[in-house]
Amino acid sequence: MEMPKLMMVEPYQLLLGGMVAITFLTIGLTVGMSHAVGRNILRSRQFTCQTVVDPQAGEIVWTVFHQNEAQSQPWLRIVPGMEGDVSPQSRCEQVAQRLDRLIPQGLQALTYQPNVATPERHAVCAITQEQGDRCSTLVILRPDTDPTAFFGELTAPLRHWGEALNLETSNQAPLDLQPFLLRPSTQ
């Protein structure tokens, strides 16, 4: 009776097999992590959070920043009046992540309106090219929060930057974001 011959694996075959396994593992981790965080992790984030000292009050405020070319520009201040018991840092990260997800959909403007689920409350939301008139909620306001005053405080850094660029940025809603997304920052 003849013994079966053992198949000999060449070193280059082991190397190729290892490279294929690492490639599939990397792709799987990238897709899994992208799904878990809700954005493509291979693309750099356009919105991040930093603390800023409010020049008028002298207190530290969490602020959403937009990365525009090589510089960061403050966009939104995390101010009191939002629904939920979340730290300002966590709320800032949530808003930044939501804005990051809306960039590929053609982020166009910010506004506020009565919240569909709870009409006695207002929501600050983003208008995108892809969603048309349907607004994506960024934050829901507490029932006793004045939406106009809140929107003004929230968007103060963005409007201040707009004034420096000679844009009309009064406390209007919707606030057109296109000039801010298309222009390089001036710092």
Descriptive report:
It is a single chain. With 187 residues, this protein is of the alpha+beta class. Helix content is 34%, strand content 25%. The protein has helices at 11-37, 88-102, 147-154, 156-164, 178-182, and strands at residues 47-53, 60-68, 71-77, 107-114, 122-128, 135-140, 175-176. The chain is elongated and about 90 Å long.
Mean pLDDT: 82
Distance between the termini: 84 Å
Derived from helix and strand composition plus strand pairing, the structural class reads alpha+beta
Low-pLDDT runs? none
Most strands sheet: 4 strands, antiparallel
Alpha-carbon Rg, integer: 24 Å
The SSE string, one letter per element, is HEEEHEEEHHEH
Helical amount? 25-40%
In percent, how much strand structure appears in the residues? 15-25%
Task: Give a summary of the structure in a few sentences.
The protein has helices spanning 11-37, 88-102, 147-154, 156-164, 178-182; strands spanning 47-53, 60-68, 71-77, 107-114, 122-128, 135-140, 175-176. The protein is 34% helix and 25% strand.
Helix-strand blueprint:
Elements: H1 11-37, E1 47-53, E2 60-68, E3 71-77, H2 88-102, E4 107-114, E5 122-128, E6 135-140, H3 147-154, H4 156-164, E7 175-176, H5 178-182
Antiparallel strand pairs: 1-2, 2-3, 4-5, 4-7, 5-6
Quickly list its features.
single chain; 187 residues; alpha+beta; four-stranded antiparallel β-sheet; 34% helix; elongated
